[in-house]
Write a structure and sequence with these properties.
Helix content: 40-55%
CATH topology: Glycoprotein, Type 4 Pilin
Strand content: 5-15%
CATH class: Alpha Beta
CATH architecture: 2-Layer Sandwich
Structural class: alpha+beta
Number of domains: 1
Largest sheet: 2 strands, antiparallel
Strand order of the largest sheet: 1-2
Number of helices: 3
Shape: rod-shaped
Radius of gyration: 31 Å
Oligomer: single chain
Order of helices and strands: HHHEEEE
Number of strands: 4
Length: about 140
């Protein structure tokens, strides 16, 4: 028997006795990688949902404050939320200075120009009471 043949037999024998083959190692690493990816996907979805919920709270508060400010300055609520997007307001802050800004800027809107919440649904607005809610199922009472 040659030395090369003896070395090959010794390598095969060592693999059998002491460790796994390359295929098994690749398989285990792949399974561990898939498990980690599944866990990360689960946490990513949870983080995205929490971010959308937080953004909805902030958005609703901003829109409600804007409608209240509109009511104070104009003695009525706006006819619809598009009025808040189109109009600006002026408030005297100190003697000789005026604060000029839009009611709602940096809010998400759809193709029709309606305000949408972080979940992609339109806000519901009641112009007689100024009540604003989300139309996303599960978040109507926020």
């Amino acid at each position: 028997m040659s030395t090369a043949g003896a070395e090959a037999d010794a390598a095969v024998r060592w693999e059998r006795e002491h460790g796994r083959g390359k295929l098994e190692t690749i398989l285990v690493c792949s399974l561990v990688g898939l498990l980690i990816a599944a866990i990360l996907t689960f946490y990513y979805e949870r983080i995205v949902l929490e971010a959308k919920r937080s953004a909805l709270k902030v958005s609703l508060a901003n829109i409600r404050l804007s409608t209240d400010l509109y009511r104070v300055l104009n003695d009525r609520y706006p006819r619809d939320l598009k009025d808040l997007l189109a109009q600006r307001y002026l408030i005297p802050t100190r003697e000789g200075t005026i604060f000029n800004d839009q009611y709602l800027k940096d809010q998400a809107i759809d193709r029709n120009g309606d305000l949408i919440d972080p979940f992609g649904a339109q806000y519901r607005y009641e112009p007689t009471s100024g009540q604003i809610t989300s139309s996303t199922p599960g978040y109507q009472d926020w």
